Amino acid sequence: MSQIKNKEELEKALEKGYREMADINSELADEGVASDNEALEACVGKLLECD
């Protein structure tokens, strides 16, 4: 990574990093919801088989 020369460059670099992490966190959250939905569907399917 290149050297940061002043406060403005540091702020821009931090903002870019936080935005990138926000995107990553959003993707991970979406994956978790999809996984939870799949598990719920499987449970409901098993419960319906008991009828």
Comma- or semicolon-separated keywords:
51 residues, mainly alpha, 0% strand, rod-shaped
Describe the structure in your own words.
It is built from one helix and no strands. It has 51 residues and is mainly alpha-helical. The model has no long low-confidence stretch (mean pLDDT 91).
Could you write a compact summary of the structure shown?
The chain has 51 residues and is an all-alpha fold.
Set down the secondary structure blueprint.
Elements (H helix, E strand, L loop, with lengths): L6 H43 L2
Summing up helix and strand content along with how strands pair, one would put the structural category as: mainly alpha
N-to-C order of helices and strands: H
Largest sheet: none
As a percent range, the share of strand residues is: under 5%
- DSSP E strands, number: 0
Unreliable stretches, pLDDT < 50, 5 or more residues?
none
Work out the helix count. Answer: 1
Principal-axis shape equals rod-shaped
Quick check: average pLDDT?
A: 91
The percent range for helix content is over 70%
**Using only CA atoms, what is the Rg?**
21 Å
Distance between the termini: 61 Å
